[in-house]
Write a structure and sequence with these properties.
This protein has two domains: 86 residues, RNA polymerase sigma factor, region 2, helix turn helix motif (Rna Polymerase Sigma Factor, Chain: A); 84 residues, Arc Repressor Mutant, subunit A. 66% of the residues lie in helices and 0% in strands. The chain contains nine helices and no strands.
Length: 189
Amino acid sequence: MDEQELASRCHRGDNAARRELYETYGSRLLSLCRRYAVDAADAEDLMQDSFVKIFRVIGRFRWTRPGSLYSWMARVALNLAFDSARKRKRIARDLVDVDGLKGEVADEPDYEQTASVPAEAIHRMIAALPDGYRTVFELYCFEELSHKEIADLLGIKEKSSSASLARARAILARSIRQYLDGDGTAPAQ
């Protein structure tokens, strides 16, 4: 069944379609939720809350192209994650203004150097990024969304997405360089 029909049947309350939606997109949505949750249980709760809301408001979904159903679902989940984080006062969304990047160029370590950094250290460095930068970085690098898709998803300009990614990469490059030049420690979460 295609995305349009799946969404339409879910809107009509078809439980088989809802099950198919959950089975088709559940693991991908859970993966997204894990990036914004405090722990695994919080990620599961966030995913469940996302599906509850998705099923409640799926009538608002408008199909535009293949993949737009997941993009819309991810937006619902991200909004819930941000709302939850604001309630806990954990996230201060700080997407960079493009003008703030002038003159900042990252001295990125080369691939061989970066490959010598343990994955868990890289994960800690990513987790230590300011939340707005981390959000854009993860959507771009892990979810493989374009800057246009990220801009649509987060309600920002494409330039802001691009600038936030550049800032995240610059911060990660500095962290990796410090790790390689220093005592081999990565920022704590």
